[in-house]
Design a protein that fits this description.
The structure holds 2 protein chains of 2 kinds. By secondary structure, chain A is mainly alpha-helical. Chain A has 9 helices and no strands. In chain A, helix 1 crosses helix 2, helix 2 crosses helix 3 and helix 6 packs antiparallel against helix 7. In chain B, a hairpin with a 5-residue loop joins strand 4 and strand 5. Chain B starts with 5 loop residues before the first helix and ends in a 7-residue tail after the last strand. The chains are: A mainly alpha, B alpha+beta. Chains A and B meet through helix 2, helix 3, helix 4, helix 5 and helix 6 of A and helix 1, helix 2, helix 4, helix 5 and helix 7 of B.
C-alpha cells in the first residue's frame, strides 16, 4: 500500500478525537485540515462556477462530519488504509454532494448533472474499499471497458463534467451519452462484484481499536512498583 | 441511507490519486504558486491550472485558527477542571488511579468480549409491501392474467415501491438483486434505491438500467438495518430473525413491445 508523505496521527489520538476529546480533535484538525481542504478543491476544480464556494463547502463538510459526536466518521476501518486516505475519500464525495446545493442557487440544475445527488449523504459511509482494492478495480475496468466508457468514467464520474458536454466530444447525442453513463454504473459494479467474490474482507469496527487502545493505555500507566 | 456503488468509490479514488501532488505541496506551503503552476502545466490545461492556483492557495494561519475554534466551540465540550493534568499527578490520588484503571480495564475487556463473541444483529420487521408499476398489458387495459408475471418491454420504465406498514423513521438501507428464473444466476441491480424519510423505498429504471435482458427474472429487494444488508443474493436469508425484510416479485422482459404498431 503506498504511503502518503504527509504524517498520520497515532490511532489512539484519532480514536480520542472521534470519541469527542477536544484536544485530540484540535490535533486531528492540524494534521489533516489541509488535506480535507485539498479534497474539497479536487472535487470542484473542474467546474469554474463552484470556485467561489470553496470555503462554504469546506465548512459544511466539517460540520457534517462532526455531528452526533463524529458519528459519520465512525465507519473508519484501519484495516483498509490510513485515516488520511479515508478522510480524503469521504471529503471528496461529501463535497461533490454538497456542491450541487450551491449550483442550484444560481441556476436550474439538470437532473443528469453528475453533481446532482438525490441523497442527503456522501454515500461512502460504512462502505469504503481499501486503496489497493480500488487500484485493482481500476486496472480491471481499464482492460475490460472500451475507450468510450473509460472517457465517460473519467470525465463524468471523476471530473464531474456535464454529460452533454462529454457526449458532444465523443460524438454521442445527449440521450445516448446519458444511457451509456447510466449503464456504466452496472458494468463497473459487475466487475467489482467479480473481484470481490475472489476474496473480500470484513471490516474491523472502530470499537475494537478503542478497546485495544484503552487496554494499552491502562497497562502503560502501571510502573514496576505498585502503589 | 444511500447505497453507494463501486463507481462512486472508484471515482473518488481516481480523482484524488490523479490530482498532481504539487497542488497539495503548494497548499502545505512547500512550493510556491508559480512552481506548482509550472509543474502542473505539463499535464493539465492552462484554464484548470489557473483555477487550481486559486483553489489550492494556502489559507492564512488566522483563518485556520478561526475555523478550528468555531468547530471546537460547536461540537466539543470545554474541558472541565477535573481533567487538568495536575489533578492526576498528585501521589494521594494513586489509589483512585488504580481503581479507575481497573474499571477501565474491565470495561475495555467487556467491550472486546462484546466484539469478539458472535452476536446476531437485531431482527428487522418493517412490514414492507412491494408494488410494481404496470406492465405493458395493464397499461393498454388488456386483460392480464394475474397468475403470470408482469411483462415489460426493454425500453419501458419499471418502478418498484416498497412501503412499510408504518412510517420507519430510523435509518434504513436497501439493496436489490435480479435472479434469472431460467438458470438461477443473479446480480445486484445497478440502480441505487432511493429512500425517503418515511422509509419508503423506490427503484426506478428501465430493464437495461437494471441489467435485465429478455426473459423471466425475480426481482428481490432487501430493506433493513444499513450495516447488515447482504452484498450478494446468495447471502440473503428470508427468516424472521433476519436484520432485514425481503420482498420479491417475478417479471418478464420482452425484447420489443409486441403490441406496438
Amino acid at each position: 500500500m503506498p504511503q502518503s508523505k504527509y504524517p498520520e496521527l497515532p490511532p489512539e489520538r484519532i480514536a480520542d478525537a472521534l470519541a469527542g476529546d477536544r484536544a485530540a480533535f484540535a490535533e486531528l484538525y492540524r494534521c489533516y485540515g489541509l488535506r480535507v481542504r485539498a479534497s474539497v478543491a479536487a472535487a470542484i476544480r473542474f467546474r469554474a462556477e463552484l470556485v467561489p464556494y470553496l470555503d462554504d463547502i469546506l465548512s459544511e463538510v466539517w460540520t457534517r462530519f462532526l455531528v452526533d459526536g463524529c458519528r459519520p466518521l465512525h465507519g473508519f476501518d484501519p484495516q483498509r488504509g490510513s485515516f488520511g486516505y479515508y478522510l480524503r475519500m469521504r471529503t471528496w464525495a461529501m463535497a461533490r454532494m454538497l456542491a450541487a446545493q450551491y449550483l442550484r442557487r444560481t441556476r436550474l440544475v439538470e437532473l443528469d448533472d453528475p453533481f446532482v445527488s438525490l441523497f442527503g449523504q456522501d454515500g461512502l459511509e460504512g462502505r469504503l474499499l481499501g486503496r489497493d482494492a480500488l487500484e485493482r478495480l481500476y486496472e480491471a475496468i481499464r482492460t475490460r471497458l472500451d475507450t468510450t466508457d473509460m472517457t465517460i468514467f473519467e470525465h463524468v464520474y471523476v471530473e464531474g463534467r456535464r454529460i452533454d458536454e462529454v457526449g458532444r466530444a465523443l460524438g454521442l447525442s445527449k440521450d445516448a451519452a446519458y444511457r451509456r453513463s447510466h449503464r456504466l454504473r452496472a458494468k463497473i459494479q459487475k466487475i467489482a462484484d467479480e473481484l470481490a467474490s475472489h476474496g473480500g474482507q470484513e471490516p474491523v469496527p472502530l470499537v475494537m481499536l478503542v478497546a485495544f487502545v484503552a487496554i494499552a493505555e491502562v497497562l502503560s500507566d502501571f510502573p514496576g512498583g505498585a502503589p | 441511507m444511500r447505497t453507494s456503488l463501486a463507481i462512486d468509490e472508484l471515482a473518488a479514488h481516481r480523482a484524488l490519486s490523479t490530482l498532481p501532488d504539487v497542488w497539495l505541496d503548494h497548499l502545505h506551503g512547500h512550493v510556491s504558486a508559480d512552481q506548482a503552476a509550472a509543474a502542473a502545466s505539463a499535464t493539465e490545461p492552462e484554464e484548470l491550472v489557473e483555477r487550481s492556483r486559486v483553489l489550492f492557495a494556502p489559507p492564512s494561519a488566522e483563518d485556520e485558527d478561526r475555523r478550528l475554534q468555531a468547530l471546537l466551540d460547536a461540537h466539543f465540550a470545554e474541558p472541565g477542571p477535573a481533567s487538568s493534568p495536575t489533578s492526576m499527578a498528585t501521589p494521594s490520588r494513586s489509589r483512585s488511579r488504580w481503581v479507575v484503571a481497573s474499571v477501565v480495564t474491565m470495561l475495555a475487556a467487556s467491550l472486546l468480549l462484546l466484539v469478539f463473541v458472535p452476536r446476531s444483529p437485531p431482527a428487522f420487521d418493517g412490514g414492507y409491501e412491494l408494488q410494481l408499476s404496470s406492465g405493458y398489458l395493464d397499461e393498454r387495459a388488456e386483460h392480464a392474467d394475474p397468475s403470470q408475471p408482469r411483462r415489460y418491454y426493454e425500453g419501458q420504465r419499471i418502478t418498484l415501491h416498497l412501503r412499510p406498514a408504518q412510517a420507519v423513521t430510523e435509518p434504513v438501507g436497501a439493496v436489490a438483486f435480479a435472479v434469472a428464473v431460467e438458470d438461477g444466476s443473479s446480480h445486484r441491480l445497478a440502480i441505487e434505491p432511493m429512500i425517503n424519510d418515511q422509509g419508503v423505498v423506490s427503484i426506478v429504471g428501465t430493464p437495461q438500467d437494471m441489467g435485465l435482458s429478455a426473459g423471466r427474472w425475480t426481482l428481490v429487494v432487501v430493506v433493513g438495518w444499513p450495516h447488515h444488508l447482504p452484498l450478494r443474493h446468495d447471502d440473503v436469508h428470508e427468516d424472521r430473525e433476519a436484520p432485514y425484510d425481503v420482498r420479491s416479485d417475478e417479471v418478464e422482459i420482452v425484447s420489443t413491445d409486441p403490441s406496438a404498431p
